[in-house]
Amino acid sequence: MNLLLDTHMLIWAAVGTLPRKAEQLLVDANNTLYFSPASLWEIGIKQSLGRNDFAVDAAMLRRGLVDAHYIELPITAQHTLAVNDLPALHKDPFDRILLAQAKCEGFWLLTSDKQIKEYPGSVLFIGRGDAAWRPQK
Hints:
Layout lengths: L1 E4 L1 H9 L4 H8 L4 E4 L1 H12 L9 H10 L3 E2 L4 H6 L10 H13 L2 E4 L11 E4 L6 E3 L2
Parallel strand pairs: 1-2, 1-4, 2-3, 4-5
Antiparallel strand pairs: 5-6
C-alpha cells in the first residue's frame, strides 16, 4: 500500500510518538512511504506563527525521511488543480494539497486529523490515542 503521511504523522514518526497502529503500518515492508514538500513548508510556516506542535527542524526532518527510505512526492500542477475538486470541508491549504496528492496518485493519506477523515476517498484515520483505523475508500 502507498502511504502519504500528513505533517503530524511525519513529525510523530521522527520523534517516536506515533500511535501504535500507525507505527505498524510504517514498519510493514509491503507499504511504501511518501512525504510531501507541503509538509516541510507547513512546518516552516507554522513555526513562524509560534505553533509548538511544529517544533522540529524541517531540513533535518527531510534528511531523516530520505535516510529512512521515504519517497518525496513532488507537487505537480495536476495536484494543485485537484484541490479545486475537493469538498469545502477543511480550509487548511496544506491539508488540502496533501489530500489532492493522495487522490491523484491513488495513495492513502495517513492522518490523525478529525476534519480530514470526513473527506471521501483514500484517507486512513488513526486517532492520536486510538489503535483502530478506518479506510475511507
